[in-house]
Amino acid sequence: MDYFSGIAIEKASKKSIKKTWLFISIIVNVGILGYFKYVNFFIDSFNDLLLSIGFQSNISTLNIILPVGISFYTFHGLSYVLDVYFGKFKVEKNIINYSLFVCFFPMLLAGPIERAPHLLPQLTKGHQFDYSKIVDGMRQFLWGFFKKVVIADNCAEIVNLVFEDPGQHSGITLIYASFLFIFQVYADFSGYSDMALGTSRMFGIQLMKNFDTPLFARDMAEFVARWHISLSTWFKYYIYKPAVKENASNLRKYFFVFLIFLISGFWHGARWTFIIVGFFAAVFVIISILLRPYTNKYISNYRTATIPSIGHIAMIFCNLSSATILATIFRNENIHTTNAFVYGIFTRFSLSYPDFMSWFLLVLILFMLIIEWIGRADYHILEKIGGGWSVFYRWGFYIFILFLIALTMPKTQEEFIYFQF
């Protein structure tokens, strides 16, 4: 549908016809995505509404299998048609090239969400074997693999045990698991992105950067901007910029910030907790923007500093705390379990050792943070680390990472978190 819509939009002589094809494409894309991801959500919500006013509903949910990666390639198709409509990209008439753009295998399952002007020209030009790109891609893949199987999967073992039965654990254990979950999500998703970008670079394809060390951001607004960059870029290009002009009022700007975050939360799946996460993320972002004139006084040269300042460390801790609140809501399946989880934190809190405490895991997380701090200014973390070292030390560093992977990889691996989206 998107392929033929693009051709029809470019051929159309009247704007009304172009708009018709654009709306058809949007309706088909959103309709398919809505059916597979949200129809049961609306059925359940409608049943609950009728039940709350005293009516018994007999509407049953559907047995639907969610296609893997549907949210990501739906956004690829939509971005292509929108770019053709707004004249930002010339239509691709070769259906093989177009299909490769939508279904390019490294990014198919969990992004990054690419725009046609950036990716399609790379796919259609000739490629030659490039040793330097293959080596660079392998370095990025290695770091992504380390984050996934060493950090994310080991955090997952503890997180799953606590979140599956929060009523059996102390408040300090619940807080500990929540903090571990934010590191799990970050290592899992950024690890996938690193592996996708590294694999693509081996083939001579440069995908857009999807994570820019968000854990070291100066505030929550920057944290969000450096987390899942391709998704926020998509919303900025196709919703925020067309709706909000430079001279727009702050009220209009903040309204669309809220709207985009709510849509982003709903994009993740058909759960009220995702929508709540989107709402509170918008609140945190707007508050951090309003406080910037004050917080910036305590953070200077934070992107180039050799070691973080006290003010920067304080902001990192505030960001992690805010992100942990969002992650806790995100991890729970519904509002009821979220309330029970938060209730357990406040009613069973005590200054004691949390259950499943692993100092070794905390050391591994610290190692990840140190390496990412050192390489935070580069395109990817291991791009320049070891570049000026002798072969012995450089390969020793890579082998050390491989050794940690072999030593700490859990027997049962967790699937990527964003495969469910």
Structural class: mainly alpha
Task: Output mean pLDDT.
Answer: 91
Count of DSSP H/I helices:
16
SSE arrangement, N to C: HHHHHHHHHHHHHHHH
Q: What oligomerization state is this entry in?
A: single chain
Overall, the morphology is globular
Rg computed from alpha carbons, rounded to a whole number of angstroms: 23 Å
Which percent range describes the beta-strand content?
under 5%
Summarize the main sheet.
Answer: none
Q: Uncertain runs with pLDDT below 50, 5 residues or more?
A: none
What is the CA–CA distance across the termini? 22 Å
Please, how many domains?
A: 2
The amount of helix comes to 55-70%
Number of strand elements? 0
How would you describe this structure in keywords?
421 residues; mainly alpha; 0% strand
Describe the protein in words.
This protein is mainly alpha-helical and 421 residues long. The chain has two domains: 2-124, no CATH class; 131-415, no CATH class. Helix content is 68%, strand content 0%. The protein contains 16 helices and no strands. It has helices at residues 2-11, 15-52, 70-85, 95-103, 105-108, 116-124, 131-164, 171-202, 220-225, 229-243, 250-268, 272-295, 310-331, 335-347, 359-374, 391-408. α1 (2-11) packs parallel to α3. The chain is globular, with a radius of gyration of 23 Å.
